[in-house]
């Protein structure tokens, strides 16, 4: 899951980025509104965190422009405690949730999770596909109730695929959502991650949860029971 | 009680005008009387000469013709009478008109002896008739002998009836005109006041529109006399606005420069905390939390306490609707049922941002603490509008209620969460002279009632 942080205060920006990277997210940072607009429209993000008081282009205008250009990923705004009017304006401009400074990492992670889940149309944080369960808030994957040991990249690849279950996801799309913009991309690495994931999720090769669509990419084949 | 300028001027006029016009009335009346009496005297004198001209002394006795040239002397009760008395004060001749006057003798008009050369004009009531009379004593020389004279007293009297009638008609006319004059003057004064006071009313109107926020200073042309006043008022307003702006800018700068470092410190501690959770980091974190709250709380208090002169009424419903729409978006999983019964004209004399803050905090709490049904209604009583926000959430415990409602409760003693938001609301509301109360809602949750001037 790739997240854009637009925050002008360098230390706060750095801390937010670290918190999110520790939580296995891919993070890009921008320090003012116009930089934010550039990143926000140039790369594919799953979510953006935008401070409302930004230099060059203020947060509300940034959100409006992104929404006008049809970027529909969830947006979380950061505000001061005593700025209800700003909060309302931000939400009206197209943001989905707000967080009041100072930011508590646990609360931030919970909000991000809820927003990402919501954008995937998922009501609960836990996805269940037969004997495979993915808890997106704990970032925990279990097969037959046994937790799997996954690296960040493996987990992120899986989470992106299950958020788009049934759809074909190209290698380049996966790369976009897994790496920040400074990373030296190599699509062969994706093949390696998918290969490892297949082995861990389905060691006996019975279910084949991740199918390869020749020339196009990958597709997560399992579906959740109807009551999910 | 302090009377208005208009009332003062009118009251003074009402007291002074009748006195002045009354004096004028009396002066005019007495002048009229004087002139009437003077012309009466002149007429009587000419009648006297008439009688004197008609009189003749024949052989030492007075002889008068039957008819005088003035016919009224011959008519009964004509009101004009003539008498001639001899030195013994015996009436030796009286005009035919005086027949019905009854006995007339010397003492009727004057008891003095005949003194040749005596002449006066006076008035008398004789036989129930008020009379003016002119009395003249003469010495009539008889023949050539110097010592042979006949002293005679001529009295010409005229009834006062005509004079009284003329006077009363004059008086009636005079007072009618004076009354008319009084009313006209008062009306004229009202018009003068209206025109004269127009600039003052214009100032009052302008100040009102400054209060309601339509204008920021006194505009337009004012007369020379109040020019310095409006100029000074404008200067005062301008310097007040600038000062307020400076103050608010300083506070905003302070808020910004304090909040960010605090947030950074807090996040540093929180980051460290996961790896190294010791008592000292916990204490540090708590203290930083408090500092953050104190800064936020005190700055909010400072900015909302400095109210400006402007008391614009802000309509509540659109703000509440925007907050509710925003919160519905954030809590879209909740599927809350919101009923808003505010009419479009309901408003508070309160800054828009402060209404956002108050309603935002209260409604956010309702959403945050499990409400699925929220209803907002309002009641107006005199100059206060009370808005009730009922929810079916978890409610607020007695202990929390107490902590929140303690006016001016220090932020560092307030509990986290619900407490801070609501005590900020309490501070904002009390700075406008309003009140916030917490009760139980009919739906089982909390009822927040906010009363503010409208």
If you had to describe this structure to a student in words, what would you say it looks like?
The complex is a heterodimer of chains A (228) and B (454). Chain A is 41% helix and 21% strand. Chain A is built from eight helices and twelve strands. Chain A starts with a strand and ends in an 8-residue tail after the last strand. Chain A has a five-stranded parallel beta sheet, sandwiched between helices. Chain A is α/β, with parallel strands linked by helices and 228 residues long. Chain B has helices at residues 5-54, 106-109, 161-211, 227-275, 279-305, 316-330, 352-368, 398-405, 418-431, and strands at residues 56-58, 61-63, 80-85, 91-94, 119-126, 129-141, 149-159, 313-315, 337-341, 347-349, 373-381, 384-391, 435-440, 446-453. Chain B has a five-stranded antiparallel beta sheet. In chain B, strands 9-11-12-14-13 form a five-stranded mixed beta sheet, with helices on one face. In chain B, strands 1-2 form a two-stranded antiparallel sheet. Chain A binds chain B through residues 9, 11-12, 15-16, 18-19, 53, 80-82, 84-85, 87-88, 91-92, 96-98, 101-105, 118, 123, and chain B through 255-256, 259-260, 262-264, 266-268, 270-271, 274, 289, 292, 296, 299-300, 322-323, 325-326, 329-330, 332-333, 352-353, 356-357, 359-361, 420, 424.
Characteristic key phrases:
heterodimer; A: 228 residues; alpha/beta; five-stranded parallel β-sheet; four-stranded antiparallel β-sheet; 8 helices; B: 454 residues; alpha+beta; five-stranded antiparallel β-sheet; five-stranded mixed β-sheet; 9 helices
Helix content of chain A: 40-55%
Radius of gyration of chain A: 18 Å
For the secondary structure, the number of strands of chain A is 12
Placed side by side, the strands forming the largest sheet of chain A appear as 2-1-3-4-5
Strand content of chain A: 15-25%
Unreliable stretches of chain A (pLDDT < 50, length at least 5) are none
Query: How many strands, what sense, and barrel or not for the largest sheet of chain A?
Result: 5 strands, parallel
Mean pLDDT of chain B: 82
